[in-house]
Amino acid sequence: MKHVKTLNTKLLQNTVAKGGCGECQTSVANQACENR
Amino acid sequence: MIHKYSMNGLFIVLDVNSGAVHVVDEIVYDILDFYKELPLDEIISKLKEKYSADAVKEAYGEIKELENEKLLYTEDIYKEVIPLIERRDPVVKALCLHIAHDCNLKCKYCFAEEGEYHGKRELMSLEVGKKAIDFLIKASGKRKNLEVDFFGGEPLMNFDVVKGIVEYARSIEKDNGKNFRFTITTNGILLNDDIMEYINENMHNVVLSIDGRKEVHDRMRPRAGGQGSYDNIVPKFQKLAESRNQTDYYVRGTFTRHNLDFGKDVLHLADLGFKQISVEPVVADPSEDYAIQEEDLPVIFEEYERLAKDIIKRRKEGKWFNFFHFMIDLTGGPCVTKRLVGCGSGTEYLAVTPTGDLYPCHQFVGQEQFKMGTVDTGVVNTDIRKDFEQCNVYNKPVCQNCWAKFYCSGGCVANSYNSHGDLITPYEIGCEMQKKRIECAIMIKAVENEE
After folding, report:
1. Inter-chain touch B93–A26, beta carbons under 8 Å
2. B140-145: long-range contacts (C-beta < 8 A, 24 or more apart)?
3. Cβ(B77)–Cβ(A14) under 8 Å?
């Protein structure tokens, strides 16, 4: 694209199916997932 | 929903529900003001003084393409996650152990009132500490990774008990299929080589309290006799940070209305050699002379932006350091579930007083109406837990139309309670600062991406 540079895509949608295990550290914007 | 802003010469667009971030040129940025309200020919007319019709058509086409690829104006599909969260068995995976309700400093902004938390000076016994570990193992269900924070007051005033609790937890974790992660916070006064060695061998993270410049630190963090503490702690903190290879620690400061130029404190800490830095706004009763007021926000916003630019400049010069509130992961980060519920206070995360009482988090300790049980009984006041279980982004009316909701989880519940007397109305001044920090963090990522 000439006018747009996209830094990332679908950051959130990709985690819906696989998420919520709760094994991550207590915090949220930069938390690492223990399961991916 | 989208959020767009201009900072440091960049035009940045965040698609809220996908998390996609786009750096655009000015024509796209301008078209987005009208894109959802007006047809193309009217947008061309609106912008004809600034852009040619062909240029607007071309940029409009790219916006349309992003929308078709579900990278702009995407729908919120995450409410479906909420029932899954509500059906989860209640488990506890993290405890904040108030190892000492006593302190050797008299910090003026301390929400714990010189470490006493509205009560009397007390130290946790090893017996209570062991019971807390037993409670955590039992209450954690199938969770494997468990966390214990040693907090205060000043934890080093009861360090033998800290060591006893760590030893006990380590002795039983494998048999119970658990993995403990320990953190300790200290003001540094009692820090010595032996304690540093122990911390390095046993603590996954250590938080070192220092506010920044000597005059700023000593004004707010005096000793009982009124003398400052800066000169005592700085060499020890520098030694500890180096001994941990500048990882797995934070120097953590508080800024108040007295130092709204807090960026200078951040850079001062960086100049002292620290690489992991957090300087955070004070949480205080608005009547205090050091409390952040709404009228301070424009100055604070400028300071955050100036700090973001300073960080970019220093990184280019090879003088990298990490600023806690500008950390953001745009390619990974936590799952949506985690983003919606945040810290888990009152549910997955509890605080334990020196006598073994359970509270929703360290900021609620001492407020009797929030006592949830004890390490002997477990959580018996399940009504409190239910109230905290409701603390997700979708139950907070103010958050529904906020672009930052997936980066803050609806804000700090304790701040909500302290400012509004309920758990779901966010603390507005905190929200505004948080949003500015997220904008700065994304801008830094955008600059790094361009390079």
Report:
1. yes
2. B140/B91, B140/B92, B140/B93, B140/B178, B141/B89, B141/B91, B142/B91, B143/A22, B143/A23, B143/B91, B143/B93, B144/A23, B144/B177, B144/B178, B144/B179, B145/A23, B145/A24, B145/A25, B145/A34, B145/B93, B145/B178, B145/B179, B145/B181
3. no
DSSP A25: P
Least CB–CB distance from A3: residue in B59, B84, B335: B59
- The per-residue b/e assignment along B173-184, b for 16 or more CB within 10 angstroms, e otherwise, is beebebebebbb
Q: Which helix (H) or strand (E) holds B266?
A: helix B263-271
Which of A19, A23, A26 comes nearest B144 by C-beta? A23
Q: Which residue among A5, A13, A30 places its CB closest to the CB of B328?
A: A30
Choose the closest CB to B331 out of A3, A11, A23: A11
3-state secondary structure B56-105: HHHHHHHHHHHHHCCCCCCCCCCCCHHHHHHCCCCCCCEEEEEEEECCCE
- Which residues of chain A have a CB within 8 Å of the CB of B47? none
Q: Count Cα atoms within 13 angstroms, Cβ side, for B353.
A: 25
- pLDDT exceeds 80 at position B246: yes
B 247-306 residues with CB below 8 A of A? Answer: none
Average pLDDT over residues B178-195: 95
For A16, which residue in chain B has the nearest alpha carbon? B336
pLDDT tens per residue, range B340-388: 888 999 998 999 999 999 999 988 998 888 999 999 999 999 999 889 9
Mind telling me how many Å the CA of A5 is from chain B's nearest CA? Answer: 5
B49 exposure class (CB count in 10 Å sphere: 0-12, 13-18, 19+): exposed
- Which pLDDT band, with edges at 50, 70 and 90, does B111 fall under? low
Put the strands of the sheet holding B10-15 in their side by side order.
Answer: A4-8, B21-24, B10-15, B2-7
| Cβ contact, residue pair B335, A19, below 8 Å | yes
